[in-house]
């Protein structure tokens, strides 16, 4: 009998995709994480999965039924013809769920990386990222979760090409989160099937500018670079925070504003010298919602894998 693989810790960042103009192609890793510690449960008669969860939405994260991390783990191993070993998992979650902050991408990548480790698949991070991207359906969140910082990516057949920039950027990030969550499928269903050439060119120009702004740390370009005509105008009807906060872009240290992923949360990129307290006051003044959560974070690195 082969030796049982040792315990593993994964630390995976939240991500904000699209960043306005970069629809399905740009993502930003944030300093809010999902930490997963897993080991094989060798007890006789052990269930397939046991979870102890702490942190944000701990009750939801502790559910074993329809658990995206474990379902992905099981599906990858079954597809590879490997034994699905029972796992004892401890989670600590900081990522807002259903807010456009990449919680599903982190869970998918976690499941693939657990399968890679406990199934001894021998995959590189690139291969694990590509497997998770195929399951997500688009690469932006997963690529940023895997590689960190500001990542732009493209699907190429079954593969993914991705490149990261923006390491060392000290801009602050602020998330404005409403009380109610939003399913990505609902937000995507609002988008039209076709766009005008003018709208396509508008976004191509701004996406190119977005990459340059992060690569060269040009915060002064973000107010324009994060403008969008592809998805935000259509999603505003179910993401009412967005039209209230977009006018703040380019003023008083707020460099850029965009829907975070598919929403309903909104991401504000803030100058490193700006007062977060002042930014929070401006957000609350624009929204006037006592249930609104304003969360400060930062640009962060990608997935971390540690043996325990």
Structure notes:
The protein has 308 residues and is of the alpha+beta class. The protein has two domains: 8-165 and 300-307, 2-Layer Sandwich (Ribosomal Protein S5, domain 2); 172-298, Alpha-Beta Plaits, CATH 3.30.70. Helix content is 33%, strand content 26%. The chain has helices at 58-61, 68-79, 103-118, 125-136, 140-147, 184-189, 197-215, 222-225, 232-235, 241-245, 276-287; strands at residues 8-17, 26-40, 49-55, 87-93, 150-156, 159-165, 172-177, 254-259, 266-270, 293-298, 304-307. The strands form two sheets. Strands 1, 2, 3, 4, 5, 6 and 11 form a seven-stranded mixed beta sheet that branches. The protein has a four-stranded antiparallel beta sheet with strand order 8-9-7-10. The longest helix is centred in the last third of the chain and has 19 residues, at 197-215. The radius of gyration is 20 Å and the shape is globular. The model has no long low-confidence stretch (mean pLDDT 95).
Number of strands: 11
Tally the helices. 11
What structural class do the secondary elements suggest?
alpha+beta
Proportion of residues in extended strands: 25-35%
Count of separate structural domains: 2
Shape: globular
Mean pLDDT: 95
| Fraction of residues in H or I helices | 25-40%
Rg over C-alpha atoms, rounded to the nearest angstrom: 20 Å
* Terminus-to-terminus distance: 22 Å
CATH class placement of the largest domain = Alpha Beta
* Main sheet attributes: strand count, strand direction, barrel closure: 7 strands, mixed
Under the CATH scheme, the architecture of the largest domain is 2-Layer Sandwich
């Amino acid at each position: 009998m082969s030796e049982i693989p040792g315990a593993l810790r994964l630390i995976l960042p939240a991500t904000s995709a699209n960043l306005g103009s970069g629809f399905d192609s740009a993502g930003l890793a944030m300093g809010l994480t999902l930490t997963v510690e897993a080991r094989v449960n060798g007890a006789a008669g052990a269930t397939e999965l046991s979870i102890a969860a702490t942190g944000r939405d701990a009750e939801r994260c502790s559910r074993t039924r329809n658990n995206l991390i474990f379902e992905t783990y099981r599906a990858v191993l079954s597809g590879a013809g490997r034994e699905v070993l029972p796992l004892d998992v401890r989670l600590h979650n900081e990522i807002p769920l259903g807010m456009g902050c990449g919680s599903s991408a982190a869970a998918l990548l976690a499941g693939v990386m657990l399968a890679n480790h406990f199934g001894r698949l021998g995959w590189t991070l690139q291969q694990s990222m590509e497997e998770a991207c195929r399951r997500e359906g688009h690469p932006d969140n997963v690529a940023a979760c895997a590689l960190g910082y500001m990542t732009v990516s493209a699907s190429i057949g079954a593969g993914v090409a991705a490149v990261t920039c923006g390491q060392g950027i000290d801009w602050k990030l602020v998330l404005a989160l409403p009380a109610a969550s939003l399913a990505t499928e609902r937000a995507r269903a609002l988008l039209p099937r076709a766009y005008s050439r003018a709208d396509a060119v508008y976004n191509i120009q701004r996406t190119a500018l977005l990459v340059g702004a992060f690569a060269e740390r040009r915060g002064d370009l973000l107010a324009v670079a994060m403008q969008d005509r592809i998805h935000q105008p259509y999603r505003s009807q179910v993401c009412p925070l967005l039209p209230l906060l977009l006018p703040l872009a380019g003023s008083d240290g707020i460099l850029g504003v965009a829907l975070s992923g598919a929403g309903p949360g909104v991401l504000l990129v803030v100058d490193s010298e700006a007062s977060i307290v002042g930014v929070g006051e401006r957000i609350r003044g624009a929204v006037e919602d006592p249930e609104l959560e304003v969360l400060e974070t930062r640009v962060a690195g990608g997935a971390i894998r540690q043996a325990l």
